Amino acid sequence: MTTALHITTAKQLLDANIQEPCELVRGELRILSFGTALHGWIVGNVSVPLAEYVNQLKLGRVFGAGTGFLIARNPDSVRAPDFAFVRADRITGEVPTEFFPGPPDLAVEVLSPSNSASEIQEKTEDWLHNGCHEVWLIDPQRRTASICVFSGRGVQIETVDTLSSELLPGFTLAVAELFEKPGQA
């Protein structure tokens, strides 16, 4: 059984080749639930326009769901967003064949009904406290999106009607479009 494995470092996690979705949080292995069809559909609805925009303007690299980002050491933390963006100036050479060293600049998380408020808060704070500039939280149940940033006053969360970012100059995506069914206008 995977949960019986003693994995406390990023190297052990990589070497274990676990086939279940998981993360390493401060040296503790956490097995995650598989995403639902709705979750995957929403991830696609946000990922495609973001990836097209980033690639067209050569702003950096985009990473799909399940990509591990090594955001802390001793104890190690490897987190995996539903979508990530890393600015071009942070990419030197080839894309790593192991976990990405450091956080993405933008992490997108699509919430699942199984996510507790404390889990969402912990993961958002992990991203932001370890160098991620922004976290977008998309809530399919409420049909809302929030942009989270870290400031001198802690984590600031703003619920928005349109997703945009200083990291992606000129990019906008209406939150309502994330939830539209094909053929709906």
Topology (elements, then pairings):
Layout: H1 10-16, E1 22-25, E2 28-31, H2 37-57, E3 60-64, E4 69-72, E5 77-79, E6 83-87, E7 100-101, E8 106-110, H3 117-129, E9 134-139, E10 144-151, E11 154-160, E12 162-163, E13 173-174, H4 175-178
Parallel strand pairs: 4-7, 8-9
Antiparallel strand pairs: 1-2, 3-6, 4-5, 6-8, 9-10, 10-11, 12-13
Shape: globular
The helicity comes to 10-25%
The low-confidence parts are: none
What radius of gyration results from the CA coordinates?
16 Å
In terms of structural class, how would the helical and strand content be classed? alpha+beta
Identify the CATH class: Alpha Beta
Largest sheet entry: 6 strands, mixed
- Strand adjacency order, main sheet: 3-6-8-9-10-11
What is the terminal separation in angstroms? 47 Å
**CATH fourth-tier homologous superfamily:** tt1808, chain A
Report on the structure:
Helix content is 24%, strand content 31%. Strand 1 and strand 2 form a beta hairpin. The protein has a single domain, classed as tt1808, chain A (Alpha-Beta Complex), CATH 3.90.1570.10. The protein is built from four helices and 13 strands. The chain has 185 residues and is α+β, with helices and mostly antiparallel strands.
